[in-house]
Design a protein that fits this description.
It is a single chain. With 526 residues, this protein is of the alpha+beta class. It contains 17 helices and 16 strands. α5 packs across α12 (309-328) and α14 (399-413) runs antiparallel to α16 (426-434). The longest helix has 28 residues, at 64-91. The termini are far apart. The relative contact order is 0.14.
C-alpha cells in the first residue's frame, strides 16, 4: 500500500509541458512576418521592416564566437581611444576655450559645483550597498542569488579591502554572523559578452562580490540624489514623452552616444567629481579587467556590470548638458537616462561638441535634432505618432515565442488608431501567427506577457512557468532581507526561498474577472 501511494505521488508530480515546440510552419510565419505585411510606403511599416531582424542572433548568420570577437575588438579600440583622451584631459590648458568665450576652467567650475550639490557629502553609510542577482567573479549565474553572496567565499580587489571593516561597522548584522570573513583578493573583474545585434555581442564584466556590494551603494545614492534635480532613473517614460513632443514641434533633440559606458575615462571622472568622491569610487571600481585569461589595466573608469556605471554616466551627462545650456544661454528641458539625452534642439551642435571634448562620441545615426523623428529610451516617434518597432532577437522555437510576437504585433498595430486601416493586411498577418496558438490561450489583455494571447475574450487558460525552489542559506536570506529593507518605513515580511524560472510551462485556469483586451481589429467587430 505504501509503495502504491509513493507511485501515485510521483505520477501526480508529473505534467505535460504546455510550452511545446512549434512546427516549421509557425517558425516560418514568425521569421517572415514583415514580408507578409503589405504596408506600402507607410513610414511605421518601413521602419518596422528595417528594425525587426536588426538584433536577430543566429549561428547560421554570425557564429557566437565571431560576435564575441567583434565585441572584444571594439572594446580594445575604445581603450586605445580612452588612453589618448586620458592624456588629453590630464594635460589640457585651463584657459582652453571649451565653448565660445568659456574657458575649460570656468566650465569645470560650474559642472563640478552642480555634481557636488547632487552627490552631497561623502559619508560612512555609503558603504551600505547590496548584491545583485548577476554573476560575480566567484559565482556563476546559476548560483548568484543575492542571499547566497552573504555567506561563503567573497572576492574583493586590493584597493577595496580597507572598506570591509567599515561595512561591518555600518552593518552590525554582517559582523555578528561572520559574513564577509572568507575573503579572496583578486586583480579585478572578468569580461563576458551577451547577444546584442546580428553581428556583434555586448561586453560586460563580472565584478568581485564586495566591490559590487560597495558599488551598488554608490549607485543607489546617486539615483536618490538625482531625483531631487528632476532626473528619475526609475522611470523611462519621461524621456519617451519628451521624444514624442520633439517629433511634433521640433523643439527637443534626442542624443544617443556610442559605447557610452566604455568611454567614461578615468581623467573625465577625476576632472568632474569632487576629489573625495573620485578617490572612493576609484578604490571600489575594478582597475583591471581579465579578458580570456589575461589581465589589463583599464583606461575606462568603469564598465557595464559595475554597480554604479549607469548612475555615474547619467550624473556626468546631466551635469555636462546643464553646464552647456547655462553658458550657451539656452533654457528648456534637459532630461537624462543613462546615455539617452533630451535637450533643446537649439543646443544640439554645442552639446555634440562638448561631449566630444570629454571623449564621448555622439551616434549621429540615432541622434535627432531636426525633422520629425525622435528616439529615446526605447520610444520611437514620427510626427507625434508611436512607431516603436519590435524585435526578433532569437530563433522562435516554442509556443511562448509565437505568443510574444503576436502580442507585439497587435500592440504595434494599435499604437496608432488609424494604422489598421492604413495597412489593411495587419489583421490577416496577426491571424496567421495567432492560428498556431491553442484557442484556450486566447483572451489575454497584457501585451508584455508571452503566456496568453491578447485577443477578444475567449480562452479560459493561461500558461504558468514552472519554477523550482532554489535552496538558499537561511543566514544569507535574512541578511539580504535585512540589508535591503533596513531603511524602509514599513518592513515587508521575509519571503520564502527564491525560485528560478525555466522554460517549461503548466496549463492553468485563468483567474476569473481578469481585465479584457481593449483594442479590436475592425474585422473582429463584424
Amino acid at each position: 500500500m505504501q509503495e502504491h501511494r509513493k507511485e501515485y505521488k510521483r505520477r501526480k508530480r508529473k505534467f505535460e509541458d504546455s510550452n511545446f515546440a512549434i512546427c516549421a510552419a509557425a517558425r516560418s510565419s514568425v521569421l517572415e512576418l514583415t514580408s507578409s505585411i503589405d504596408g506600402g510606403e507607410d513610414f511605421a511599416y518601413s521602419y518596422l521592416s528595417e528594425e525587426f531582424a536588426a538584433k536577430y542572433c543566429d549561428e547560421t548568420l554570425t557564429p557566437s564566437s565571431e560576435r564575441r570577437a567583434n565585441a572584444i575588438r571594439k572594446l580594445r579600440e575604445c581603450e586605445v581611444r580612452n588612453a589618448a583622451w586620458n592624456e588629453i584631459l590630464r594635460d589640457r590648458d585651463p584657459g582652453y576655450n571649451l565653448l565660445p568665450r568659456v574657458s575649460y576652467k570656468s566650465f569645470l567650475r560650474f559642472a563640478r559645483r552642480l555634481i557636488r550639490d547632487i552627490l552631497g557629502p561623502l559619508s560612512n553609510e555609503l558603504v551600505v550597498g547590496e548584491f545583485s542577482g548577476g554573476a560575480s567573479t566567484s559565482r556563476r549565474r546559476t548560483e548568484s542569488h543575492p542571499a547566497s553572496k552573504y555567506v561563503g567565499k567573497a572576492d574583493v580587489t586590493e584597493s577595496a579591502v580597507k572598506y570591509i571593516d567599515l561595512i561591518k561597522v555600518e552593518c552590525p548584522l554582517l559582523k555578528e554572523y561572520a559574513i564577509f570573513d572568507d575573503v579572496r583578493v583578486v586583480e579585478g573583474n572578468i569580461l563576458f559578452t551577451v547577444p546584442k545585434k546580428t553581428d556583434i555581442d555586448r561586453c560586460a564584466c563580472k565584478e568581485p562580490d564586495i566591490n559590487m556590494f560597495l558599488q551598488k551603494g554608490v549607485g543607489a545614492r546617486i539615483r536618490r540624489r538625482l531625483r531631487r534635480f528632476g532626473i528619475d532613473l526609475n522611470d523611462q517614460s519621461l524621456n519617451r514623452r519628451f521624444a514624442e513632443i520633439g517629433s511634433k514641434d521640433n523643439s527637443l533633440a534626442t542624443l544617443d552616444l556610442s559605447s557610452a559606458s566604455d568611454t567614461i575615462t578615468i581623467e573625465a571622472v577625476r576632472a568632474l567629481l569632487p576629489l573625495d568622491w573620485f578617490l572612493y569610487l576609484n578604490d571600489i571600481r575594478s582597475q583591471q579587467m581579465e579578458i580570456d585569461g589575461d589581465n589589463y589595466r583599464t583606461e575606462m573608469f568603469s564598465s557595464m556590470g559595475n554597480g554604479f556605471t549607469f548612475e555615474l554616466e547619467s550624473l556626468i551627462f546631466f551635469a555636462l548638458m546643464r553646464a552647456t545650456a547655462y553658458f550657451e544661454g539656452i533654457s528648456g528641458v534637459i532630461s537624462v537616462y543613462g546615455d539617452d539625452i533630451v535637450i533643446p534642439s537649439g543646443m544640439f551642435d554645442a552639446a555634440t561638441w562638448l561631449l566630444h571634448s570629454f571623449g564621448f562620441t555622439v551616434n549621429m545615426e540615432k541622434s535627432f535634432s531636426s525633422g520629425f523623428f525622435r528616439e529615446s529610451c526605447g520610444g520611437h516617434y514620427f510626427h507625434g505618432l508611436d512607431v516603436t518597432p519590435f524585435y526578433l532577437k532569437r530563433k522562435p522555437t516554442r509556443l511562448t515565442d509565437v505568443i510574444r510576437v503576436a502580442n507585439q504585433l497587435r500592440r504595434w498595430a494599435f499604437a496608432d488608431e488609424y494604422r489598421q486601416y492604413e495597412i489593411p493586411g495587419l489583421y490577416r498577418s496577426w491571424c496567421k501567427i495567432a492560428s498556431f496558438v491553442p484557442k484556450g490561450l486566447w483572451g489575454g489583455y497584457d501585451y508584455a506577457l508571452d503566456t496568453k494571447l491578447v485577443s477578444p475574450p475567449g480562452g479560459r487558460h493561461v500558461l504558468q512557468r514552472v519554477t523550482s525552489p532554489v535552496g538558499l542559506p537561511s543566514i544569507g536570506s535574512y541578511a539580504h532581507w535585512h540589508n535591503t529593507n533596513w531603511n524602509r518605513q514599513h518592513d515587508p515580511k521575509p519571503g520564502r526561498d527564491s525560485e528560478s524560472t525555466v522554460q517549461k510551462c503548466r496549463l492553468r485556469r485563468a483567474k476569473p474577472g481578469a481585465p479584457v483586451c481593449l483594442h479590436f481589429f475592425h474585422e473582429e467587430l463584424v
